Amino acid sequence: MTPNRDTTIIRVIDMHTAGEPVRIAESGFPPLVGDTILEKRRDALTRLDHLRTMLMLEPRGHDGMYGVIPTEPCATGADLAVLFTHQEGYSTMCGHATIAIGRWAVDSGRIALVDGKASFGLEAPCGVIRVDVEAGADGLARVAFESVISFANAFDREVQVPGFGRLRVDIAFGGAFYAILPASRLGLSLMDTPLAKLVEAATAITAAIRAGAPIVHPDEPDLGFLYGTILTDDVALGAHGGQPSHNLCIFADGQIDRSPTGSGVTARIALAASKGEMQVGDSCKIRGVSGEGFIGTLAATDGTGLDARSRVRVSGQAWYSGRSEMIAEAGDRFAAGFALPRRLADLDTPA
Description:
Elements: E1 8-17, E2 20-27, H1 37-47, H2 49-56, E3 66-71, E4 80-86, E5 90-91, H3 95-107, E6 117-124, E7 127-135, E8 141-146, E9 151-161, E10 165-173, E11 177-182, H4 195-210, E12 226-232, E13 245-251, E14 255-256, H5 262-274, E15 283-287, E16 293-302, E17 309-316, E18 318-328
Parallel strand pairs: 2-3, 4-6, 11-12, 13-15
Antiparallel strand pairs: 1-2, 1-18, 3-4, 4-5, 6-7, 7-8, 8-17, 9-10, 10-11, 12-13, 13-14, 15-16, 16-17
């Protein structure tokens, strides 16, 4: 059988970085319109969002899916450009997807290796990220990226969280804004508390902060929003004695990042730098819920406290998991995908 007329077909390649999925729309996604990457992001949201939901949501995706829409770069110094997508919308930065894009860009011939190495500018909604790729002796590409300017936004911001009372949280920007706090501050253990309880807590914290005073990015209004909450262990990044730190990142509508979260690792290290806990050249391995880790290194910093501005280098490895065509036939009421309802009474049942 063949698809019917007026069928949408988007060819994708699936990868994962530390267990977190990356679905790259290789072909079939219409060109995005705009003179800047943020204008293209708005165009995708207003004109083509049904394609995001088609690729991210069921029956072609799932609540934990993550995606990349390659597009033409606009910024000086950018060789490639991307939008990052998830089950709720569009993020401003994604480190695990950047690591996957680094390998994909080289393997697909979009970026050339010279003597086994490549370096290129990747334009994301948060700015241009420098990506370095090196082919290993086993033929697999190792990827690292250097973040946009990252910084702490608030120390010990107080927030009233239903079910948990008044909490103190730090907020930091690593390409996206995160609330960051140890799970122990909630009376929970990051390692032993059931995952559902941690997700509930992180989601409640995100909602409470979003309901309060707005978060403002110093340069770009479109970046001024809380992306998610990161619960950490009690390992101090600047005095970890070589042991890895663990964290759990919850973003979008309760979506769990299986990886340590590249932009989250960036935010954590920028936060540590702003507190004077890490010096330039210091590194730490940070692991996510899959158990796989990224290496985060403070590459540069200037200033102190909330005035500190840092760049962070994050390295990891991505793997291929599949190639396919996503098909949405005309007349399929799930052509744009669907999200599982919270209650059966919320079902969108056809007449």
